[in-house]
């Protein structure tokens, strides 16, 4: 990738945003209640200096893949280049494991924590996923709490959005709606 910029794109869950730079995608934004809020959140993640632009071929392919995945296709997004230069090392490890989870499948926070050194890191895993600048490509929605319960989700709509994304992929989640859903 040779230039930087951002664009918004439509998916089955709403209008998303993506930002890019020379090394790869620098941020992805799940839909907010309106387009202005989606832009604002993307700028918070990727920088407000970015120009809105037509995506270069690599980014255009990533957008098609993300859109297809959110349309129900079993697409592998591990070939999409991400610029993790601003991502802490621990988070990079969490994101690498999360990227290995295929569509329709899940891991728990504890599963990822064990791979990183011990179940006591589960809370740190959850925090790293809450800071994920690359939702969809780093599929934090595929990481559940113990017992297959949905756990949290920091995107607009919270757990409802997470459950919708998992349903599109055909993943099983042990979820009983609560008063807060």
Could you characterize what this model shows?
It is a single chain. This protein is α+β, with helices and mostly antiparallel strands and 181 residues long. It has two domains: 5-69, Double Stranded RNA Binding Domain (2-Layer Sandwich); 89-169, Arc Repressor Mutant, subunit A (Orthogonal Bundle). Helices cover 35% and strands 14% of the residues. It has six helices and five strands. The strands form two sheets. It has a three-stranded antiparallel β-sheet, sandwiched between helices. Strands 4-5 form a two-stranded parallel ribbon. The longest helix has 13 residues, at 57-69. The termini are far apart.
List the helices and strands and how they pair.
Elements: E1 5-11, E2 14-21, E3 24-29, H1 35-46, H2 57-69, H3 89-99, E4 107-108, H4 109-116, H5 122-130, E5 143-144, H6 159-169
Parallel strand pairs: 4-5
Antiparallel strand pairs: 1-2, 2-3
Helix pairs in contact: 3-4, 4-5
């Amino acid at each position: 990738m040779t230039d930087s910029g951002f664009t918004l794109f439509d998916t089955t869950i709403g209008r998303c945003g993506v930002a890019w730079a020379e090394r790869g995608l620098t941020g992805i934004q799940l839909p907010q209640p309106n387009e202005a809020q989606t832009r604002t959140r993307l700028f918070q993640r990727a920088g407000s200096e970015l120009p809105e632009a037509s995506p270069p071929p690599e980014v255009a392919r990533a957008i098609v893949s993300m859109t297809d995945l959110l349309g129900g296709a079993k697409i592998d997004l591990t070939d999409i280049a991400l610029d993790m230069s601003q991502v802490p090392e621990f988070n990079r490890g969490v994101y690498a494991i999360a990227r290995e989870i295929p569509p329709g499948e899940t891991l728990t926070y504890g599963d990822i924590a064990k791979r990183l050194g011990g179940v006591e890191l589960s809370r740190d895993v959850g925090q790293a996923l809450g800071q994920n600048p690359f939702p969809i490509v780093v599929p934090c929605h595929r990481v559940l709490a113990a017992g297959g319960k949905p756990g949290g989700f920091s995107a607009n709509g919270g757990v409802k959005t997470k459950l919708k994304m998992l349903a599109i992929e055909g993943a099983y989640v042990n979820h009983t709606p609560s008063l807060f859903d």
